[in-house]
Amino acid sequence: MWPTLTRLREPMTLAGVFTIGAVSLGLRFLPPDILPAAAAALGAYASGFLLFAVAPDTWKRSRRIALVAMAALALLLAWLTPRVGTAQVLLVIWVACAVNVLSPRWVIGAAVVLNAAFYALLVHHEFGAPGTMTLINMGFQALAGLCVHYARRAEDSRDALARVNADLLATRALLADSARDAERLRVARELHDVAGHKLTAMKLNLRALASDPTLAAREEVRIAQQLSTELLDDIRSVVQAMRDSRGLDLQTAIRALAAPLPRPALALHIEEGVKVDDPAVAESLLRIVQECLTNAARHAGAETLTVSLKNEEAGMHLRIEDDGRMKGGMREGNGVSGIRERVAALGGELEFGTSATGGLRLDVRLPA
């Protein structure tokens, strides 16, 4: 429901609806015997346009059928209303829509065929200067098509830049965590090797002093021995705690990857106690999730991608599934091949399956 409303609010959709509404005002100049057929054709064109505008990108066949129907209805209106100008405007809208789903070569070819048919209809109705009128229409169509084409290119560039930025943020988060862990281990080693060594030497010297009969009864010597023992134990506890780090922050890095994508939403579940210390393993997990996010956004039409990471007896288990629907079965491209290579490099196992909704499910098991 909400994606449909979002598509209806897009500027291009609103412009198309407004233009069709404005064109409909011209039908009042038609003769009464033609008006019902023209109104029905325009209503059907508007329905096809709305279907094309609000249908998900995965409905490729439905959108192309709507596009063909819109072209036929525009020519029908050109035959019914050659002097009102309705068809000319509808053909401009058609070209703007076609640019969204067809390659430039197909758009140009189809536009040439439609304008040739439009020219033939003008000649049939003995319209004055049909060639000039057709060329003017083609100019407006070219303008609309170019505007939509460059708008889509700008939008794609913006999305690509957002993905690259998210990738950099996620990588920076992992690098920052890795640097903090390295610094923590360095400080732990310094405490253990330097402070621990000197405290041990001091404890041994105090023990030697306590063995002297003249100093054994001194309370200060006993207290110094006790404090040195407690301080050495405290330093060992601190060093152990610093070595037992919480691992790299995968949660922050994965959420940074999903942030720029309007769809699918990310449902992330990382089990308490899961710890990834190796930056190479963390990066591989991050890239696997990134590829699944991209596939779900482009191909599956998914609204939610669920990512869960937990510990098992044999190691670590990563499960990723979306609520979309695969069409035509699983096809392994470069992205899936990259996932296989990453999992194989870590000595893990990879399984593909189908989610409850018909989407993709991926299970990665890595050895402990």
UniProtKB/TrEMBL annotation:
It holds the Pfam family HisKA_3. GO terms for molecular function: kinase activity. SUPFAM superfamilies: ATPase domain of HSP90 chaperone/DNA topoisomerase II/histidine kinase. Gene3D superfamilies: 1.20.5.1930, Histidine kinase-like ATPase, C-terminal domain. Residues 183-245 form the Signal transduction histidine kinase subgroup 3 dimerisation and phosphoacceptor domain. Keywords: Kinase, Membrane, Transferase, Transmembrane, Transmembrane helix, Two-component regulatory system. It comes from the Bacteria. This is Two-component sensor histidine kinase. It comes from Pseudoxanthomonas japonensis.
